[in-house]
Design brief:
The protein is mainly beta and 174 residues long. It is built from one helix and 17 strands.
Length: 174
């Protein structure tokens, strides 16, 4: 006798862009969903933004996204974008206004745990925003000990010249 076995694949919804009503198009033959869509690559434009498990700012956090981080949007609805972080693969909801069109320009990585972005190339000038380690910035010029980025002037020593993510925060803190 031949037995037909129905295999239902189960996915970890924390890291796979799949819901009952919508899923990423690359899952078309692997999951049953009402609709499959190709995502649109965006990037974070705030110093950091929360990625929530549901489209509610009171919901539990899945993770946090940093400036310049790439995020694939599969659905944009009622001020929320549902998608997936390309850095750590987490899936969830972010406020749509925290994202912008993806910029393909070369970027540099913030290497200090916190890096103030100043209004002028002077550490006594106003801080425009404080960046976290591994934020992605674009550099357009340098002056004295500062680099002009897309968000303000940052101390040269706070930027990784190799454009490599820092992975061991404990080692850096020592």
């Amino acid at each position: 006798k031949n037995y037909k076995i129905n295999i239902i694949m189960s996915f970890d919804e924390r890291i796979v862009p799949v819901r009952k009503d919508i899923a990423a198009d690359f899952l078309k033959n692997k999951h049953k969903s009402q609709k499959f869509v190709s995502g649109v690559k965006k990037q974070v434009i705030l110093a950091k933004t929360n990625l929530y498990t549901i489209n509610d700012a009171r919901a539990p956090l899945a993770t946090e996204l940093l400036l310049g981080e790439e995020f694939v949007v599969y659905e944009n609805k009622a001020g929320w974008s549902w998608g997936q972080s390309l850095r750590d693969s987490y899936v969830g909801y972010v406020r749509s206004e925290s994202l912008s069109t993806f910029d393909k320009d070369k970027y540099h990585i913030v290497s200090n745990i916190f890096a103030p972005a100043y209004e002028k190339p002077n550490a006594r000038s106003r801080v425009m925003m404080t960046l976290c380690m591994n934020s992605k910035i674009r550099i357009s010029k340098s002056k004295n000990f500062f680099l002009l980025s897309n968000v303000g002037w940052i101390l040269n020593e706070h930027v990784n010249k190799d454009d490599v993510f820092e992975k061991d925060f404990v080692e850096i803190a020592k």
